[in-house]
Amino acid sequence: MAACLDSLNKLDYPRDKFEIIIVDNGSTDASLDIAGQYEVQIYQHPRVKVGAVRNYGVTKAKGELVVFIDSDCVAEPDWLHRGVASLGERYKAVGGLYLLREHPAWIERYWILKSTRDFTYQTTFVGGCIFIWRDIFNSLGGFDEAMSAGEDTDITQRLKSSGHEINIDPQLSVVHLGYPVTIGSFIKRQMWHSENYYQNFRAALGDKVFLLTNAFMLGFILVLSSPLLGSFSLLTGVLLFATSPLALSAKRILRYKAGDIGVSGMVSVYLVDMLYLVGRVFGALRSLRKAIASGPDQKSTRR
Questions:
Q1: pLDDT per residue as tens digits for the range 49-88
Q2: Which three-class secondary structure state does DSSP give residue 58?
Q3: What SS3 class is residue 80?
Q4: For residue 248, how many C-alpha atoms fall within 13 Å in the half-sphere facing its CB?
Q5: In angstroms, how far is CA 89 from the centroid of its own chain?
Q6: Are 170 and 237 in the same domain?
Q7: Which residues have a Cβ under 8 Å from the Cβ of 171 and sit 6 or more positions away?
């Protein structure tokens, strides 16, 4: 929190031309005490998901342009100036990427293979770095408040479907301090990201990661079932179990243009992707349990 607010205080933009709004959704650490030391507006909106937090902040904003940054992100001094200048007749929303901190942990390094402002390696917004005109945001109904994660991807898709041209500019990127640095926290985050899979089943079917998650899970089930189903089950299960993270690794290495990481680096990427799918499977199972209890494909909730 402090690093984020310090960076916002150093923006090279007239301070009387923007406001900083913090929405706390029930933090149990010292976030509110830290925020109280800065010139900011603080609101509390507890026990809601991230989309509702962002939407609530917009209702408190005064300007025609709304900008989203997360408390674990750090912006460059020219970030706001660049973002405002990027909007115009052509682009109705712009954003940047998440960059690694200096000296990242092993799991950060091999999850985010490139940390650069030189090229764009993604096609959707990240929630902690979005600039959007308020009227456009409101016309879309804001972020989906039912989603535990992926609300940034969802609003990107709705912007495009509505005919609004967007731009992801690596020069608008922010340093993300919130990447998991331990195996346990990494798996836990992937569980969180996948806990809505079966509630939004139709949308999930278009997600390649969802398909890989299910292939990985099926492989594990077939391996466990091989004493009953025989060697074919074992062979198929091992093949699915091994190739699912391999497919993800190949995709990420190509996407990040990271073919120069060497054999040991590729092994590390594969291990990270194995952990990634383990977390996604646990989250998917949690989602499946909730879907069975309440019915699949529940309607999304927006403002």
A1: 999 999 999 999 999 999 999 999 999 999 999 999 999 8
A2: helix
A3: helix
A4: 29
A5: 28
A6: no
A7: 82, 96, 117
CA 173 to chain centre: 14
- Burial (0-12, 13-18, 19+ Cβ within 10 Å), 79: buried
Structure tokens of 38?
């800065």
pLDDT tens per residue across span 164-215: 999 999 999 999 999 999 999 999 999 998 988 887 777 777 788 999 999 9
* Residue 162 burial class via C-beta count within 10 angstroms: exposed 0-12, middle 13-18, buried 19 and up: exposed
Give this prediction's pTM: 0.85
Residue 230 exposed, middle or buried by CB count within 10 Å (0-12, 13-18, 19+) = exposed
Q: Which residue has the tokens 């806990």?
A: 195
CATH number at residue 142: 3.90.550.10
Q: Point out which residues pair with 67 in neighbouring strands.
A: 131
Query: Are 124 and 203 in a shared domain?
Result: no
Strand 21-24, strand 93-95: pairing: unpaired
Q: Is 245 exposed, middle or buried (0-12, 13-18, 19+ CB in 10 A)?
A: buried
Q: Which domain holds residue 61?
A: 2-179
CA Rg, the chain, in Å? 21
Displacement of CA 105 from its chain's centroid (Å): 19
Q: Which residues pair with 63 in a beta bridge?
A: none
Q: Which of 77, 46, 78, 41 is nearest to 60 (CA)?
A: 41
The continuous run of DSSP H or E covering 218 comes out as helix 208-229
Query: Please, what is the end-to-end C-alpha distance for the chain in angstroms?
Result: 26
Alpha helices in 10-112 (DSSP H): 31-35, 50-60, 79-86, 106-111
Q: How many whole angstroms separate alpha carbon 68 and alpha carbon 83?
A: 11
Query: Is residue 237 in some structural domain?
Result: yes
Q: Looking at residue 50, what DSSP letter applies? A: H
- Are 241 and 277 within 8 A, CB to CB? no
Instruction: Give the sheet arrangement for strand 98-99, strand by strand.
Output: 73-74, 174-176, 98-99
